[in-house]
Amino acid sequence: MPGRLSVVLLTALSTLLASALTAAPANAETPSVDWVANLDQGHGVGVAYANGALRLTAATGLLTLPARPLARPVGRLSTQLDAATPPGATAEVDVRGRLPGGRWTEWLPTRPNAPTTLPGPSSLVQLRVLLTAPAAGAGAARPEVRGLRVHGEVVPGQRVAAPAQAASYRVFATREGLVDGHTANGHRIVPHDLFVALPSWRSLADEDGSEYSVKVCSAGGRCAWAPVWDVGPWNTRDDYWSGHREQWHDLPQGVPEAQAAYRDGHNDGKDGTGRTVGNPAGIDLSDGLFDAALGLTANSEVTVSYLWTGGPALSTVDAGDQQTDTGAASASATGAGTDDSVTGDSGAGGGGLSAERAVAVHSAPAAAAPTVGVAADNAGVPVECATPNGWLRIGTDQYLPASAVDLADDTAVGPC
Description:
By secondary structure, the protein is mainly beta. The chain is built from 3 helices and 24 strands. The protein has helices at about 1-25, 255-265, 285-295, and strands spanning about 30-35, 45, 45-50, 55, 60-65, 70-85, 90-100, 110, 115-130, 145-155, 165-175, 195-200, 215, 225-230, 280-285, 300-305, 315, 360, 370-375, 380, 385, 390-395, 400, 405. The strands form 4 sheets. Strands 1, 2, 3, 4, 5, 6, 7, 8, 9 and 10 form a 10-stranded antiparallel sheet that branches. It has a 6-stranded mixed β-barrel with strand order 11-15-12-14-13-16.
C-alpha cells in the first residue's frame, strides 16, 4: 500500500509539473489588469482634491478621470471605492469603454462586489466619480473619496453586436437658457449657445466633448446636430431612449418619465426627486439651438436621434477649420444673405450663429445647395461617405464640408 501511494503521488506530481511547464507561456500574461486611480487627475466639476481625499465643493460633484489605454481589451470592470458617505450622501463610480470601431459605450454604474460587463471588448476605458451631498442643511457632513482601485478582466470570445440604426423618438423640447451658468460637465453657458441636456448622467459628454450627440429636427424639417453637455430636464436617471433604462422600467422605451408624469399621472405626476412635473419635456435645448438653429418660438415637439446608440463612430465638427475651397462651403455661404451667419435668422434670442459656432448643413454636396440645418462646433456626426469634391454625407440629403470635420480615430470613409 505505501508503494502504491508513492507511485500515485509521483505520477500526480509529474502530471502537475508537466501541466505547469506547458501552461507557463500562456500564464505569462494574465487575462486581467489592475490599477489604482489617481484622484488628483482628470476634470472635476463641483469637487476638489486636497489632503488625500476628493471632496464636494457644491451639492453635486463629478470627477472624470483621464481615459486609460490598456495592453489588452477587457470586457468586465470592477471597482473598489474607499469612501465615507454620511447618511443621505452618495459616492458612485461609473465606467465606460471605447468599442472596436471607435464608439464609446454609455457610462455604466459599478456596484460593490459585482463586475460591470461592457457591451464589448475595450482597449480604452474611462472612469468617473459622482458625489452628492445630503439634502440637509449646510452643516451636514459631506461625502469624501480617499481611493479607487480598478480591476479589468478579459472576456474570452466577447463580441460587439453589429451597429443598429440610432434610436430616434419624438419628444417635447423646452428651452434651457441659464446664460452664464454652468452645465453638468462644467461648460459655461454663453449667449446663443449650442448644446442639449438629456435626463440621464449616462449620456453626458466630457467638457467640450462630442462622444454623445443628438440630431434634433423641428416639425418644419430643419435639423441641428449638437453635443449633450447637461443633465435634465426634470430627471437625472431617465435614459428613456435605452432598451435597458436605469429607472422607470414600467415605461415603454422612448417615453420620458416627465412626459408620462405630466400627461398620464405616472408616479403621481412627480419626477424622481418628488417635484410636480410642470411640462412633458424629454430634452432641453440651449438658446442658440432653440431659436437660431431650429427657428422655434415656443416649447414644442421635436424628433431626436440619439446618435451614439447606433451607426458609425461619431466624428467631430470643428467649425474653426472650415474653408472656402472649390466645392466646399464656408459657414456664411448658405444662401441666407446674412454676413457671417449660418442661419441668416436672428431668432427670438437675436443674432444668427457665427461661423465659429456652427457649420451649415446642405441638401447636396455644393455650396449653392439649400441649407437644411446646422451642425454645432463640437457636435458628433455620423460620417457615411465622402464625395470627390470635398463633402461628407452625414444623413440622407445632408452634407458637411470635409474641412469642417475631424474624423473619428481609425475611421475609413468610402466614396459616396
